[in-house]
Amino acid sequence: MNVIVTGKLKEEPEISALCRPIAETSPMPMAGVEGPSHIVCYVNPAFCLLTGKTKEELIGKVFSAAAQAGGECLSLLDRVYKTGKAEIHAGEESPGGHRFYWSYVMWPALAADGRRAGIIIQVTETTPFLLQSMGMNQALIKSSVHQHELTDEAERLNEELRRVNDDLKQFAFAASHDLQEPLRMITSYSQLLVKGYRGQLDGEPAVCVDFITKGAKHMRDLLADLLSYTEAGEDRDGADEPIDLNMVLERVTANLKTAIEESSAVVTGGDLPIVLGHGARFVQLFQNLIGNAIKYRSASPPQISVSAEQRKDEWCFAVSDNGIGIDEEYYQTIFGVFKRLHGHTVPGTGIGLAICQRVVARYGGRIWVESQVGRGTTFYFTLPMNGGTT
User: Fold this and answer.
1) H helices of 179-275, where?
2) Residue 165 belongs to what H/E stretch?
3) Which of 82, 183, 282, 362 has a CA 20 to 30 Å removed from the CA of 100?
4) Which architecture, in CATH terms, is 5-125?
5) pLDDT value at residue 345
6) How confident is the model at residue 125 (pLDDT cuts 50, 70, 90)?
7) 202-244 pLDDT tens trace
8) Would you give the end-to-end CA distance of the chain in angstroms?
9) pTM over cut 0.90
10) Nearest to 252 by CA among 294, 215, 223, 211
11) Helix/strand/coil for 65
12) Architecture of 237-390 per CATH?
């Protein structure tokens, strides 16, 4: 039990003398009451500020008239007066239709001879805090409802996106397969035409047959790459498995052996990590990047470097070359489907980097390029570590 013991001051109510030493400069509103009717005998400046009344208006009044104390608070005052035990009360009052929230701490004040001289009350209006809390709760509820609506909308858009992607995959798959047969017929008949009229075709007819043959081959390559592009981001390869990228690099250099020898290219690789994924996808990724470094070479033999660096929670890979370089205005364009900067002067379909981007995105990474025209290019891509790389 919290008590204050002191002697009685002359010419001053006993409870006032008990309160003044500790309450006068306190920032917390405090009052002293005495008797079973709880007559206010002392208020500190903070209590006056809280109630908006002067000491003269408060002293001598019952406490229920001095502060907005409800029945429960007054019952506690009676209990403290009778039992001599401290009480804490947090209540809500609605005088005049306006809601207020109060917090009370009450404890008996004892005179030097042990008599209960009265009760000291510390009272605080908590309305602003509680109203702010209520406002925050309402805002959280609204936010939760809005978030739920956004989630529903996101799910709807994702479902629509999945449907569109499925339609695109089906179209690409059908187109790449259904168009193969007419292309084979065009190629076969053009070859028969060349064989049947061997030695007789010259001039314009020979040029036309050559265009037909090259056009059919180019279309065949486009369809094959389109199918590769649609499959690059799919999950139908089964569960991810540990892939040693050093072995992937060896396989890629074997696949590109002819191009490497013809261009006198030198391909070097650092110590590459083991990642979770599908070997065929990483072969696509590295083969397109290294193949491009060979195709877009300068007059000097290609010098191609493959390296990896650990950065926080991801691996950052770099495929660098000393080729012709790329102008900065095309840094984003080159990742588009069928985007080619050099027309037909360099062989290809313009879909290799789009495949690279899909493969990297499939495993949660990103890809970008840095280059200087005439000095070479570096393609960077990341793969998150999150337990999937070592």
Assistant:
1) 180-196, 204-232, 245-255, 257-263
2) helix 127-178
3) 82
4) 2-Layer Sandwich (3.30)
5) 58
6) low
7) 777 777 777 777 777 766 666 666 666 666 656 555 678 899 9
8) 64
9) no
10) 294
11) helix
12) 2-Layer Sandwich (3.30)
